[in-house]
User: Which sequence fits this backbone?
């Protein structure tokens, strides 16, 4: 019988806080893996108190830790470390995002956990990776985005670099971590190999997204700079402002699309101009084209602009706020808002599952748990008696 979830039967131990490690294990949990989140007894993951709170707990927490089981372990206590050893001995995956060297001091470096459980895949997410001259330095996603090249090219040319509106560096690193897990599991299960370490550096995760940045500099000496909303070399593609003050992204950089677009806005002269038939010619006249498009968009309210572009089959989208998303039929049809309840029973919406699998889709069984909610349950499954669990709790090990 095929499992109902693609990662069913896999056990993941998460030794992570905040974003990168927990996001990676969240993805595993959504697709059927048993995820045991190990937290410190004195407050747990700081994400529990980040951004907007509801009755003292972050709303983000309820999403980031959905489908996980929370176990509190004091890893400074010998008995707490012994519990972790028992968990790792039967786990398939360990996901951690401590600074390099922290787990080694606790006795859980790669060599130790590999000897304890040769099949274990260990995912290590850190600012600069496990090697190199900067490996011991702390590094958050913002640092990875800066060093990896993203922030240098984000913003307008006459202003300082800006950040994206989310912790994108951490999230990209998490995705690379999950990709590494799946490749390592494939090697283990199909090729007969042992477990291995997946080493993800935040700056490298971002750097891997930098498209043609490296060869353009190496071959041509070209340094990509900030260019605001346009895409130099790919024209027209930019954001424009409507008569009612809304914003819309229009991507009409395909040759046939450009012709349809120009006919739709009453500029057949530009549609049929041989100099504009291909991208290189359009890019050479991009200031002229953007002026034409800016004036047309500014003459109409957003709804009319969207109607014209839709009829002409020109790729475009208003710049969505979360309020726009909640009202959009595409989001609703794709089940991108899941109904859930907060601990006091209040209903709320959380993001849907990505990606969509046709035969073994992911799901959300429960929201982020209370601190240590599953400690007794998990330790009981490891063979600890109720009396032993009470003793561990009284001595501060859990």
Assistant:
């Amino acid at each position: 019988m095929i499992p109902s979830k693609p990662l069913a039967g896999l056990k993941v131990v998460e030794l992570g806080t905040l974003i990168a490690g927990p996001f990676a294990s969240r993805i595993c949990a959504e697709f059927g893996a048993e995820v045991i989140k190990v937290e410190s007894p004195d407050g747990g993951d700081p994400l529990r108190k980040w951004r907007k709170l509801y009755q003292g707990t972050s709303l983000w927490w309820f999403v980031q830790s959905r489908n996980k089981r929370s176990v509190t372990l004091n890893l400074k206590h010998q008995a707490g470390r012994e519990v972790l050893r028992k968990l790792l001995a039967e786990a398939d995956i360990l996901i951690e995002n401590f600074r390099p060297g922290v787990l080694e001091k606790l006795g859980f470096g790669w060599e130790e956990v590999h000897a304890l459980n040769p099949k274990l895949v260990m995912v290590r997410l850190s600012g600069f990776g496990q090697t190199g001259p900067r490996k011991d330095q702390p590094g958050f996603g913002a640092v990875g985005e800066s060093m990896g090249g993203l922030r240098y090219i984000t913003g307008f040319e006459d202003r300082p670099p800006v950040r994206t509106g989310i912790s994108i560096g951490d999230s990209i690193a998490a995705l690379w971590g999950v990709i590494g897990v799946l490749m390592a599991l494939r090697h283990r299960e199909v090729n007969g190999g042992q477990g291995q370490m997946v080493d993800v550096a935040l700056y490298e995760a971002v750097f891997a997204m930098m498209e043609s940045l490296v060869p353009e500099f190496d071959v041509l000496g070209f340094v990509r700079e900030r260019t605001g909303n346009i895409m130099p070399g790919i024209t027209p593609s930019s954001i424009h402002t409507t008569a009612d003050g809304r914003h819309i992204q229009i991507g009409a950089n395909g040759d046939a699309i450009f012709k349809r677009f120009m006919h739709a806005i009453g500029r057949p002269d530009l549609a049929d101009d041989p100099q504009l038939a291909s991208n290189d010619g359009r890019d050479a006249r991009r200031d002229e084209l953007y002026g034409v498009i800016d004036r047309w968009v500014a003459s109409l309210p957003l709804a009319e602009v969207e109607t014209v572009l839709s009829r002409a089959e020109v790729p475009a989208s208003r710049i969505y706020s979360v309020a726009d998303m909640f009202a959009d039929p595409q989001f609703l049809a794709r089940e991108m808002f899941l109904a859930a309840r907060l601990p006091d029973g209040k209903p709320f919406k959380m993001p849907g599952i990505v990606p969509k699998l046709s035969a073994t889709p992911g799901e959300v069984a429960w929201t982020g748990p209370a601190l240590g909610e599953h400690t007794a349950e998990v330790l009981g499954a490891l063979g600890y008696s109720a009396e032993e669990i009470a003793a561990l709790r009284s001595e501060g090990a859990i």
